Hints:
Subcellular location: Membrane
Structural class: mainly alpha
Function: Negatively regulates growth hormone (GH) receptor cell surface expression in liver. May play a role in liver resistance to GH during periods of reduced nutrient availability.
Protein name: Leptin receptor overlapping transcript-like 1
InterPro entries: Vps55/LEPROT
Shape: flat
Main location: membrane
Amino acid sequence: MAGIKALLTLSFGAAVGLMFLTLGCALPVYNKYWPLFVLFFYILCPIPYCISQRVADNLDGGSSACKELAVFLTTGIVVSAFGLPVILARAEAIAWGACALVLTGNTVIFATILGFFVVFGSNDDFSW
């Protein structure tokens, strides 16, 4: 039952984050959809870590070069997701209010992704 509660909480977090992203794009004051390119970063973020889990799963050591590279790539993706709205706002392609909404959505979405890997990433009988 704890898994269902965690999954519902993570789903709610993802919905709230996507709501902030949508508000940053679709409100009549802003009405520009350039911030939706952040969705690519949401999709790309967990990929390096998932690949490194499959490749370096059989290693007993706490750290490996594969896992460190995955963390580095994931950090680059997350920083890019936070940088894109700021660059768009500085170039006056979007308003600063839309940038703030997108950055809030980024924070919620990436916290949700992190929460997913914390809850479901362990190798016990509760994991996927």
